[in-house]
Design a protein that fits this description.
It is globular and about 50 Å long. It contains two helices and six strands, in the order βαββββαβ. By secondary structure, the protein is α+β, with helices and mostly antiparallel strands. The chain has one domain: Thiol Ester Dehydrase, Chain A. The longest helix has 19 residues, at 28-46.
Amino acid sequence: MLDKKIFKHSTQLRVRNYEVDWQGIVHNGNYLLYCEVGRVEYLRHIGAKVDLNSINSDSRVVLVRNEIDYLAPAMFDDLLIVSTRISFIKNSSFAMEGIVERESTGERIVENVAYHVWLDPETNKSKPVPDDMRRLVQSFEGEHCSIEWPSVNV
């Protein structure tokens, strides 16, 4: 279980009618979309420039793995709280964690871990996460994020 106490950012979503199946339960793929909304809002909140092509630079950032644990169903018209954080930044990759809860009860609906890689847009090869992004995350997350800084060769 992810530790909710160390999450500093959250956003609200309401379940819409076209997101549920014939039982009135949110279709499983929509939870990944809810977590994506949380990730984008988190990046905006910490001051990262987010557009269709990149985050804070002339690079590309791609999602390479998405893990989700389904814990309880959300239903039509539920108000959901999506909490998001960056848990680590390595050389060219970083992970964002997400928790979706029912606002009325605090019941945990899903947990998500999404792994991303920073790419050079011309070669599609991985490249280091920019230092300005590391600084933004470190400033916001503090001790609750493991950040590896690239070593400088002298």
